[in-house]
Design a protein that fits this description.
about 300 residues, 14 helices, 9 strands, globular, binds NADP nicotinamide-adenine-dinucleotide phosphate
């Protein structure tokens, strides 16, 4: 599929999400330049037509919009302002958009730092994983200046089913953290429901069938639930990344002076699971951790 309005887009970070976003942009006709700290992960995208570079600076030089999709705040700082970082590839048309999930206060500081270099920056976190990214069905949330967003709207339209412009820098990251609080708690509640029903002698697949016949069904209980019940935790979103998001959620809650006991408990459980060898599983692997602690208690 060719897009009417193609842009020169840079993707920094070709992990699970970055690779899928880059694939979608290539498939919709955009010119895509990529960088990843571990070169090997760029190979499949090179085959699809992406131009691979050896630094974030080089990506910036070749792109009008650079989307950063890296693990956490330290990574965003490193690729933005570190050695051969994005700011050193600055040119007149350059816009930066951060799709990594980070906290809103730090996102604001990063955008201010970019503005000292004269580079407009937005936060553009997303809902939906790699599979939806490849189909152009993400939900994108944008924080920043509206006119900057409008200059690269065509790129977001290529990857998103819906885009929400939420106001100034950091507002989209705040919304994203509120979303991931839902996801982390839902995964816990579904895990405990499956474990509870199994222990009570019920078939967990029937537990899901009953749940999914009610008003309380979710996309998670219909799509991820059967995999969880079968013990399949193929990662679309690593548990370690959800643990990082819970750190950001709790840090932000502290800054906002809001008391979220369930978010604190979720962080504790995901941290323990990550330390106990479950970090590289899908985040729904929290169920495998809960099963493990149940076995060691019985
Ligand atoms: N997967 C999803 O469904 C999903 C959905 C919404 C939002 N997100 C967010 O998107 C971001 C990426 O997630 P992901 O699922 O793609 O994770 P991932 O597969 O673990 O990829 C992480 C990426 O960050 C890079 N990275 C990590 N530390 C770095 C550093 N210090 N310097 C430079 N690069 C660094 C990694 O490079 P290496 O290859 O060298 O390690 C890799 O490209 C996260 O903030 C996540 O919360 C993910």
């Amino acid at each position: 599929m060719k897009h009417n309005n193609v842009m020169n887009v840079g993707i920094i970070g070709t992990g699970l999400l970055g690779s899928a976003v880059a694939t979608r942009l290539l498939n919709t006709g955009h010119n895509v330049t990529i960088y990843n700290r571990t070169l090997e992960k760029t190979k499949p995208l090179e085959v699809l037509g992406a131009h691979v570079t050896e630094s974030p600076k080089k990506v910036a030089e070749r792109s009008d919009l650079v989307i950063t999709i890296v693990k956490d705040l330290d990574a965003v700082e490193a690729i933005s302002f570190g050695k051969d970082g994005i700011v050193f590839g600055k040119h007149e048309k350059l816009i930066v958009s951060d799709m990594s999930t980070i906290n809103p206060m730090s996102s604001r500081k990063i955008s201010q730092k970019y503005s000292q270099y004269g580079i407009p920056m937005m936060d553009s976190p997303v809902m939906g994983g790699p599979a939806l990214a490849e189909k152009g069905q993400l939900v994108v949330m944008i924080g920043g200046k509206k006119d900057v967003y409008e200059r690269c709207k065509t790129v977001f339209d290529s990857i998103a089913e819906r885009t929400f412009f939420l106001g100034d820098n950091g507002m989209a990251d705040a919304m994203k953290l509120a979303m991931n609080l839902q996801i982390s708690l839902l995964a816990l509640s579904l895990s405990e429901g499956i474990i509870f029903s199994k222990k009570a002698g019920l078939d967990p697949l029937v537990f899901l069938e009953v749940l999914n016949s009610t008003y309380f069904k979710t996309g998670m209980s219909t799509l991820k639930g059967p995999k969880m019940a079968r013990g399949v935790f193929e990662p679309s979103f690593f548990l370690s990344v959800m643990q990082k998001d819970l750190d950001e959620i709790n840090y932000t809650a502290e800054q906002l002076k809001v008391n979220l006991p369930a978010a604190r408990l979720a962080r504790e459980l995901y941290q323990k699971a990550a330390k106990d060898g479950f970090a590289e599983m899908d985040y729904t692997g929290i169920m495998a951790y809960l099963e493990k602690i149940n076995k060691s208690n019985s």
